[in-house]
Design goal:
Helix content: 40-55%
Number of strands: 8
Radius of gyration: 29 Å
Structural class: alpha/beta
Number of helices: 30
Shape: globular
Strand order of the largest sheet: 4-8-7-6-5
Length: 575
């Protein structure tokens, strides 16, 4: 196996004025070498054509790719290291990488022109609409949008544009879909972008180096890339406000055998269903929830929302049949919690006996009345009130337990498995939230957790702390974990408790990483040996969330001391 180069070894020095071009060329070479079989002949020619452009034109194109949108004013494309903008643009226009004088819609016009320019360009339309010449951009846009839906070149909107703008151009980048495809094949997602190179070069992000395997890439078929891109675009259109009915018709099937793309498709179906439900399209919402929630790897949230919607519509019999089916199929904690609330209501409606279940016990609680909290918030106020030198209190929330898990299980989390790591900028394994993540590493996790049984977990945790400090991890938030906190935690928390918590994390990494108590109090000098207690803080009007309830129930079952502190504020003294 070959090692994937570290991020620091592939990023261009920021002392180089063309660092961004060097980074873009690196991605071109990387994708061409590792994913060349997923590129069409036309796309491979684009790579060659790009390298044949003058350097200034390459640099200008990359500058545009790394900015927001596809439309630009040429006056906004002035960069000292590139030189004359028009000279750099000309080869790009000739090669079709850039379109000069593109058609513009009203939204484009409002984004590109200043307010004074808009008032000149649309003077006739503003007067015809009876708008004040002093109207703001927002007012003009809102008033004109309903009846200016055409798309046309700038001079059609504004015949005097060339004189007023003194020859300035508006240009459109035409190759952004190709650049997004390259970025996707490199990163395996469209969440990361070109800024990763800069952040790594600045030392603001550091990444683990993982050995590469023959299967170390995100995609193995072009159809997978196509499906990902289409699902991503549909999600963008949904977030922009497009109707679920339109988008539903365009949802693609995913290539057979690709479970993680199927999960991604399921999440989009759920989002469409949620949008349809909010819009009053209940039949469509039910259909989308069913498509998202059914089958292996179905979305738990979709199944729960489908049942709640059926209940709200009075379709109790169908809701009951689906709920019983889920109850009998050994639902996970999140789903079981929802079903335990829903089934009794449905059974009462239908005159049936609900399935037996243990009532949810209220977690232990205590109450404090404190002076009103300042900037630190209610959690900090409780921590300061309770903390004593012999019993320190730390604000840890979702940092301590997950952090210790990440430190102990680092070798399993960063194991060089196919499809887990395939570029230098991984903050964690790419398959972290896929259904088979733990199964693929079960023996590795077992070896890590065995250290808790052997009593050698302290050594392993401190070794990772020293060797990996500052490297990106999905579980270790270094700024929230200092040596004092780790030392006190390892001294006071029994290994059996850590193992139980880590096993619960592994049972559902997505759902169980959140909901942990806000505070921990260490009692190193307690009678019978060091102890600790976990404290969930609730201010006035706040209540426990479902994931917090599940953690508290787990702690109760494990004999772990966990309480809820309800806070009220002292009345302020009258002057």
């Amino acid at each position: 196996m070959n090692s994937i180069p570290g991020a620091a070894s592939v990023t261009a020095s920021l002392d180089d004025p063309l660092y961004y071009l060097a980074n873009f060329r690196f991605v071109l070479d990387w994708v061409s070498e590792r994913h060349g079989d997923l590129l069409t002949a036309a796309e491979r020619r684009l790579v060659a054509d790009f390298m044949a452009l003058p350097q200034s034109s390459q640099a200008l194109l990359v500058r545009m790719v790394m900015r927001k949108g596809e439309l630009f004013r040429s006056s906004k494309l002035a960069y000292p290291e590139i030189g004359d903008t028009q000279s750099a643009l000309a080869p790009l226009v000739e090669a079709g990488w850039i379109e000069a004088d593109p058609a513009l819609g009203l939204v484009d016009l409002f984004r590109l022109l200043r307010l004074a320019e808009l008032r000149q360009a649309l003077a006739g339309e503003i007067a015809a609409a009876g708008l004040s010449p002093r109207a703001s951009k927002a007012q003009l846009g809102e008033a004109l949008a309903p009846w200016l839906e055409q798309s046309q070149r700038l001079e059609a909107w504004w015949p005097e544009a060339s004189d007023v703008l003194a020859g300035e151009q508006i240009v459109r980048l035409t190759v952004m879909p190709w650049c997004d495809r390259l970025r996707l094949m490199f990163f395996g997602n469209l969440r990361q972008d070109w800024a990763e190179f800069v952040l790594a070069e600045l030392g603001l992000q550091r990444f683990e180096r993982v050995e590469a395997t023959p299967g170390s890439r995100a995609f193995h078929r072009r159809e997978e890339v196509d499906a990902y891109l289409l699902l991503h675009r549909l999600r963008e259109r949904l977030e922009a406000g497009e109707e679920p009915a339109t988008l539903e018709a365009e949802i693609p099937d995913v290539p057979e055998g690709n479970a993680w793309l199927n999960q991604r498709r399921g999440r989009l179906l759920f989002a469409l269903g949620h949008a349809a439900e909010r819009g009053g399209e209940e039949e469509r919402a039910l259909r989308l929830y069913a498509a998202s929630g059914d089958g292996p790897g179905g979305q738990v949230e979709a199944r729960i929302r489908r049942l709640r919607l059926l209940e709200r519509r009075g379709e109790y019999r169908q809701a009951h049949a689906l709920a019983i089916q889920a109850w009998d199929s050994a639902a996970g904690e999140q789903e079981a919690q929802a079903l335990a609330r829903l089934l009794p209501r449905l059974c009462r409606r239908l005159g049936l006996v609900p399935p037996e279940r243990e009532p949810e016990a209220a977690p232990p609680r205590f109450d404090l009345c404190l002076p009103r909290a300042g900037m630190g918030g209610v959690e900090q106020a409780v921590a300061e009130h309770l903390s004593r030198p012999e019993a320190p209190v730390h604000y840890v929330e979702n940092v301590l337990v997950t952090g210790l898990f990440g430190l102990l299980c680092w070798p399993a989390l960063f194991a060089p498995l196919p499809g887990a790591f395939f570029h230098p900028f991984h903050g964690g394994p790419a398959d972290l939230h896929r259904d088979d993540f733990v199964a693929r590493r079960r023996e590795r996790f077992a070896a890590c957790l065995a250290r808790l049984d052997a009593g050698t977990h302290d050594e392993a945790i401190w070794r990772t702390w020293r060797d990996k400090h500052g490297l990106a991890s999905p579980f270790v938030h270094w700024e929230g974990l200092d040596e004092v906190l780790i030392e006190q935690a390892l001294a006071c928390i029994p290994a059996a408790h850590l193992r139980a918590c880590f096993e619960r994390l592994l049972a559902d990494l997505r759902a169980n990483r959140a909901g942990l108590p806000d505070l921990i109090q260490f009692l190193p000098g307690a009678t019978g040996g060091p102890r600790y207690r976990l404290i969930e803080v609730k201010g006035p009007g706040d209540r426990l969330q479902d994931n917090q309830r599940r953690w508290l129930a787990f702690f109760r079952g494990q004999g772990i001391d966990a309480v809820v502190c309800h806070v009220s504020w002292q009345a302020e003294a009258m002057p």
